Amino acid sequence: MSLFPIVIGNVEVRWFSLAFPDKLEKEFLKDYLSKSLVHSRIALLLAIFFYGIFGFLDAWLIPDEKLSLWFIRYVIFIPYTALIALFSFLENYKKYMQPINASVVLLAGLGIIGMVVIVPHSVSNSYYAGLILVFIFGYTFFKLRFIWATLSGWMIVVAYEIAAILLSDTPIPVLINNNFFFLTGNILGMFACYSIEYYLRKEFIQSRILETEKSKVNAANLELEKRVAERTSQLVDMNKDLQQEISERKRSAESLKVSEEKYRTILESMQEGYFEVGLTGKLKFFNEAAAKILGYSMQEMANLDYRDFTNKKTAEKMFHVFNHLYTTGKPVNVMDYGVVRKGGEKRTLSMSTSLIRNQQGEPDGFRGVARDDTARKRAVEKIRQMNDELEQRVEKRTAEISETNQALKQSLVTVKKTQDRLVQTEKMASLGSLVAGVAHEINTPVGIGVTASSLLEEKTQQINGLHSSGKMKRSDLEKYLKAANDTSASILSNLKQAADLIRSFKQVAVDQSNEERRVFHVKEYINSVLLSLRPKLKKTAHHVQVECQENLKINSYPGAFSQIVTNLVMNSLLHGFSGIDRGEIQIKFSKTDVDYLLTYSDNGVGMDADTCRNIFDPFFTTKRASGGTGLGMHIVFNLATQTLNGKINCKSEPGKGTFFAIKIPSKQEI
């Protein structure tokens, strides 16, 4: 219900949009768009013509600014309107005709406002008058509905006010004068557009009413003509009927005889039993199929009552069925009707029964068609028994499957525990290998330190002997001091090297053996891990390059970083650089807007697609014959995705090396 209802004809419309109720509105819009299509195309062409022809005014009034004005006319408005004109020949144009045409009016108004801003105040009034033409064109000639015309009109008004006040610095008297005519023209245009649409809708309603009344008149004429024709035909038919009545009576008698013979043949040949009983229940008529179903002869059946071949319970059932037929007159279907044949055999019948009426329309008996369903009944019972047996088998099989599933679940738990133990064993094996390598690496500087200490002790004993005997010369003391200085420097250097190895190994080993979170320098820690791997790397000519911001600290799990870098480097040494003497490894750690990115790449032999796809699967290895467990990269995957809560991807092609990218959430920076 509209707030301020307006009635057009006998239809209530919305006061502002003038919209009809939904179904009628759709019919109006379809009719309106269909009638406006050609007019809309003409309006578009006229808009192009007038907007273009006024270009001579630009060259005449302000030749210095004509290029800017022509840009608005010939580069923006005319091409856009031409495209809309071409689009009007497509089917989708009807659907969007109103907003598209409104955009043309709006663009025309905005173009003129742009011209008013560009031109000097002395000639701006010549262009300001064009806005009035746009209003006239948009509100009256363009066939725009009131809603769309008003929307585009007021948008032009707002745009003009913004341009006149903020962009053009229009004098107040001129602004007031222009606004008076501008707003008055817009409001008058609104009234004109509203009136045009109102009368178009009124014409549409009146046209519908006229069509309806015309249809009623035509129908009345047709009905009158029909009655006249019927009455004339009745008079003619009455004469014919009098002539045909006698011959029809003769044909009826013959037809009745033929019909009786026809239906008797049908009753005798049908497989179902047909019977008729009186109101007392005595059989009045039946066919041979009915006698055969009950096992009686035709003569025996003539003396039977329906109660004679049923038990007491079934007889009561049929009494209620016949009583219902007698009371309501509606046919009744009877299922599982039990009878007893002449020899005592029990049969099950299904019947359709109905009421028989005499010529006065009064109940006179009952008729029915019976079908022997004994075989079907037995088949249904057999199917039910088979279904029961099948359900028992299904229950038994379901129980067996449940037990099997339980056993499988237990096996899966066992496999998972075994896998976890193998992963932990692999970690400890990696740590053990690291310990052995570092221990071997420490032996060298420690051995050198021991040798240098022994030499220093020997030189000290020699100088003490010379000093005690009083034979020590200045040159002997200088030699001793030089030797002591060199030996001490050697001892200090090698012990410092051993201390660095021990410190790096200690931190890496501690991190790998637990999962504690702490703050650490990323680049310094990666270098420590590589230092602990030096026993493995120094046996090769491979080169490792680390790229990372010098002072970048994160709060994360260094043990996970250590194991990831260790397994990736060992994977390159064992698999990637197979048959390659000098390989390059690049480890980069960088920060993005949303996360950290750890990338690892080598220029090794690479992998095929199947190997790359399965590389993170547990126990997958291409070196099983060489003792590979297939758990190294699986550990890397678990550390990256679970411990670091990140994502890992692998890319590789045969002969093109391998690339790993691990994305880690950036909330770990401090």
Describe the structure.
The chain is built from 17 helices and 14 strands. By secondary structure, it is α+β, with helices and mostly antiparallel strands. Among the domains are: about 25-220, no CATH class; about 270-370, 2-Layer Sandwich (Beta-Lactamase), CATH 3.30.450.20; about 515-670, Histidine kinase-like ATPase, C-terminal domain (Heat Shock Protein 90, 2-Layer Sandwich). The strands form four sheets. A five-stranded antiparallel β-sheet has the order 4-3-7-6-5, sandwiched between helices. The chain has a five-stranded mixed β-sheet with strand order 9-11-12-14-13. Strand 13 (about 645-650) and strand 14 (about 660-665) form a beta hairpin. It is flat and about 175 Å long. It starts with 5 loop residues before the first strand and ends in a 5-residue tail after the last strand. The model has no long low-confidence stretch (mean pLDDT about 75).
Summarize, please.
The chain has 17 helices and 14 strands.
Give the topology.
Layout: E1 6-8, E2 11-13, H1 22-53, H2 55-61, H3 66-87, H4 92-118, H5 121-141, H6 146-167, H7 172-269, E3 273-277, E4 283-286, H8 288-294, H9 298-301, H10 312-328, E5 332-340, E6 346-357, E7 363-372, H11 374-469, H12 474-513, E8 518-521, H13 522-532, H14 534-537, E9 543-548, E10 553-556, H15 558-576, E11 584-591, E12 595-602, H16 609-614, H17 632-643, E13 647-652, E14 658-665
Parallel strand pairs: 9-11
Antiparallel strand pairs: 1-2, 3-4, 3-7, 5-6, 6-7, 8-10, 11-12, 12-14, 13-14
Helix pairs in contact: 1-3, 1-4, 3-4, 4-5, 4-6, 5-7, 6-7, 11-12, 12-13, 12-15, 13-15, 15-17
